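Hey all, sorry for the wall of text incoming. These are the two entities for the joint prediction.
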Amino acid sequence: GAVVSQHPSRVICKSGTSVKIECRSLDFQATTMFWYRQFPKQSLMLMATSNEGSKATYEQGVEKDKFLINHASLTLSTLTVTSAHPEDSSFYICSARTRTGGGSPLHFGNGTRLTVT
Amino acid sequence: DQQVKQNSPSLSVQEGRISILNCDYTNSMFDYFLWYKKYPAEGPTFLISISSIKDKNEDGRFTVFLNKSAKHLSLHIVPSQPGDSAVYFCAALVSGGYQKVTFGIGTKLQVIP
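and here's what came out:
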């Protein structure tokens, strides 16, 4: 089946630094990738949608200058949390879909636990 | 405004019995629904889906029922196994256009051996 690899799985950083999270589709080409964020006891909240070769579409309330998304190829999307603050500590999950149209299931990475100290 | 609601945060079921997880939605534009299973420290895994043109979809031990008039769907697992213990997310989307997937908060299922 389709495999999405997310790296790193866990990262601790200091306030003010930037962290990059990678999301790779290993055995398929992902024209669209999604970045989610999950706070404890809450649902997965979509942060942004990235399409290969174009600018990401951010959800309302998500700062695009803080959460930089790059989808330079059909197999790689990156999320960079810039100038991280403790309130950015969360579980970030990427997902990919192979085609648009219809209800193709999303294939998720294993997530990244970010802790900002 | 939570468009996909899972009102039961947790559920305990005896091994071999049926597990029923419920989900309600408010957006009448949703026409495709999915269930995902999530273990700790892992990403969600797709389980089963259903289109709004159907009222039932079955895959092995997993069956999803959709009641469009009530805006309600449910996931039945029978027989339940200890390995089914996980958090189950209900999700919905509008299949045309943007296709943003909206998730519920999840229900933690514990299957007791």
